[in-house]
Amino acid sequence: DVKVTQSSRYLVKRTGEKVFLECVQDMDHENMFWYRQDPGLGLRLIYFSYDVKMKEKGDIPEGYSVSREKKERFSLILESASTNQTSMYLCASLDRGRVAEAFFGQGTRLTVV
Amino acid sequence: GNSVTQMEGPVTLSEEAFLTINCTYTATGYPSLFWYVQYPGEGLQLLLKATKADDKGSNKGFEATYRKETTSFHLEKGSVQVSDSAVYFCALIKNTDKLIFGTGTRLQVFP
Question: I need a surface site. Which of A42, A57, A101, B51 has the fewest CB within 10 A?
């Protein structure tokens, strides 16, 4: 089975801290994504990557950056955490085969205090 | 740009009732369409998919048909169970680019 693993289920950080959210997939997928999920807003795309060292901004990249040094790992970085970044963060990887299908991690619930 | 619109929730049903959750999309060409489900405390799981017009995706009693003429992909189930209570997301992808989601619809099923 494809596995997408996020490093933490729950995180509590202080305002102004630099925060790293890690995501690892084990199926050699090219595309990886970071979303945040908020009530009433659904999933909003923060950043995505279609290859090592490549990244593209999604719909809400402000306050975030990403790193993809290895194909299996896609990291989301909050440069200076703020309370409005309290959210559920979901990582996904995409099979770019004939029928595209995304696989999701279990999510990281981040609280910034 | 590409987008997905789905009905607002919550949808509240009694067990064994018929379910419909509406989803329409905007996209050029022929995107692939998906329904994902999120159970409480978990990440998203693929429920079903369809990759071309008139395809019907089905899984666990759920069905959705890719309707190009109405740009729709409505989710249906003939008889819901309490265990179906979850949030359902409609999504599309074009050219294996980025996956675009609707806002999600919460389904609550009561015994």
Answer: A57
